[in-house]
Amino acid sequence: MPTQENPVNAPVLCRFVSSLEKIMPGKAPFLFVSQLRGCRNERFSVQLACYYQESRPSSFMELSLTGGLSEYCRVYDVGLVSAGLPSYGDADESELLFTAPTLVPDVMRPLEKGVRLLPHQWRSFWITIDPAGKLPAGSYSLTACLRDSKGEWNEKAELMLTLEEQLLPKSPLLYTNWFHADCLASYYHKEMLSEEHWKLLESYLSSAAYSGINLILTPIFTPPLDTEVGGERPTMQLVDVTCADGGYRFGYSLFDRWVSLCKKYGIENFEISHLFTQWGAHNAPKIMAHKNGKLTRIFGWETDAHGEEYSRFLRAFLPDFAAHLKKSGLAGHVWFHISDEPSLSHLESYTSAVNLVRECLPDFPIFDALSNVDFYNTGAVKTPVVATNHAQSFYDSGVTGVWLYYCCSQYKKVANRFLSTPPVRNRILGVQLYLAGAPGFLHWGYNFWYSQFSRRLIDPYSNTDADGGFPSGDGFVVYPGPDGIPYSCTRMEVFYDALQDYRLLCLAEQKLGRETVEKLLQRGLPQPITLETCPVEAGWFDQWHAALYELLND
Fold this sequence. Notes:
Blueprint: E1 12-18, E2 35-39, E3 44-52, E4 62-66, E5 73-83, E6 102-110, E7 122-129, E8 138-147, E9 154-164, E10 174-177, H1 181-188, H2 195-210, E11 215-218, E12 240-244, E13 247-251, H3 253-264, E14 269-272, E15 287-291, E16 294-299, H4 308-327, E17 334-336, H5 347-360, E18 367-369, H6 373-377, E19 383-387, H7 391-396, E20 403-405, H8 423-427, H9 429-436, E21 440-443, E22 479-480, E23 486-489, H10 490-512, H11 514-522, H12 539-553
Helix pairs in contact: 9-10, 10-11
């Protein structure tokens, strides 16, 4: 696929390309970049796109980085994964990169050996540049050089990065991407909460923090999420329960270890897993207890969540847990869930559940995902987490403090991060969260490597749609690497840029005022930015960044 920039006699072409382009094997990229700009503690992403013209795969080539930025770079080989369900059948094709099943560049493997290119394919190497505030303001160069093993030729690409004096502030946005601890044990075939499992947890929690997660789903009991009615997920329970003398005793050593591990990597906020089942809050989650010398399941799908026994359990456990949280200095850093995505048909059951929990936890916030403003108006949920395509009804009703989320159902008009989603529709969320004044954002799939309803373990490299349950990519943004090392993906890195956009806008608001920032973002656009209307041109991000820095540097 030679172009004017790719002479026929050159065996390979390499160019720096924006992170806002998904480099498909059979399509020439066009968002070439030679300059980046940002704050001193910002993390930058750029791609090195390579096209090989020969008819056979290349030998292993050397990719080297030189220049003032080279020591702050990490290089990843972007691998192809299968997208079996790009989106639902009624999606707007103009909003997606593709609608037919295909192979998609996504998983990022650390580049450890030589580079091998395939004939007549574009391939991408993802480069993260992370000065971490160690470099003073100024301009710095980066040169990527691709050499063949015989030293007969080399191709170079050059980039300049301008670091501004400003530093991004700590994010005020709470961001949770549900962390599925059981999936780690299942995939790597480790005993739950064994020392090998704790090593996996540490590796993946570290990666979660690096991706911007600062509120972590904490499985005090096995989370009753996406579990087939009557089925079970593997037991993942951080609270020790003992049945004794007609009551219960509770132990928190595993929970305390979890908290300590999260804090080690800067995750300071904890989202307690749901206390009632999904789809109605009718049943209790799976809870194991020591009873008569054996570890026994004492609650589950067969348990009426509003019956005497489970209510008695919660009245014993929740005040005891609250006292432990306060003693541990976690007051103000813990949020509780009742049941995921209740609807009006569940109002009676949900209200009964939440009233009991509020009675036992008067000093802790409770929040849940829901999308019906009439349900909110009943007062059952004080802090709603609302789907982005339903949020406007809450804003129109004057509701404030609305958290936002998206999942498989948000595939028209709004932002998302499916494999088929253009990167600009992934990154725009940071601006949208800022303009909406959202205090938090939730996504359900950090590493959900089960099929829909948790019926079986899947291979996320070949099965990205949970056995056809969700559009490809919805369930996870990390891949399981060897030796317990998580592999990031291009979608997660672009999403991190969205989080950095949010932080930059908060910095600008501190110095320029919110009105000035909002006007700058809306400048020159045919219609206001909302959750359902947004710019889709990659160049727009550079434009408002440049205009903002001009104001900040005055």
